[in-house]
Write a structure and sequence with these properties.
single chain, eight-stranded parallel β-barrel, two-stranded antiparallel sheet
Amino acid sequence: MQYRRLGSSGLQLSALSFGAWLTFGAQIGRSTARDLIAAAWDNGINFFDNAETYANGEAEKVMGDVIADLRLPRDGFCISSKVFFGSATEPGPTQRGLSRKHVTDACHAALKRLRVECLDLYYCHRPDPDTPIEETVGAMDVLIRQGKVLYWGTSEWTAAQIREAHKIARANHWYAPTMEQPQYNLLHRERVELEYAPLYAEHGLGTTIWSPLASGLLTGKYNAGVPSEARLGREGLGWLQRTVLGGEGERVERARRFVALAQEMGLAPAPLAIAWCLRNPHVSSVILGASRPEQLIQNLEALEFSDRLSEGDWQRIEAAAG
């Protein structure tokens, strides 16, 4: 495993981490979840990502129970939660968003579900147009000073919103956001590579990126359509299918070209796509998702690809993905 600093902080995260989105508490059972966490830990992963809204809080319960069952040393791993969407099936006005109340309530609930005394990383899962940024930054500062959160950050905020949070924190001598969790893969590059570009030097921004495989698109599993047993074919995930595939099929065609090139090179497309994400020095950690231990183990092969491929190979890969 490789370890990278979280932006300009001193926290060392595994370059590949493991997340619970769409799997824990929903798609897989507790036994499989235990096997996945054990496999991740045995292979050097020290960052486990979660959120209040994943399976309406059940994902955090499962992850907390599994980590406790495995008796992982608390000082050896980092765990996260995210706040915005709420954990209730139909959250009320005080059960979602980034108000001081919900940010605080959600933190306490996540600590209980995850069975830890503090969150190593705590994210604002989306920007909240109904709450002043100053209120959210102040709430995060209080949680850090209380020892309930160590680092706070954002997810899918604009560069302007992140700058505003830093400006407010600096003016009030509060803790500023350390990290952002954006989508980043061969098909979604603009925000990480262009919009956030000035923030890495200006504010020491770290990124823990999600969906390195574009929700499976870059594995080739959707080249011929959406199988009913695949993630995008599951009941209730039609919104994700529309988001991932796009309206004109252009992303699918780009993914087909990438997969064809990977096969030509004799490489599995999934770890190859993950390895491409790791090439970006501003990526602190790539969050992996998996429903089977063998799937996770294959994706960890991405760590070996940087030494196996030339700069010319990477240029061909980027050209194939458009």
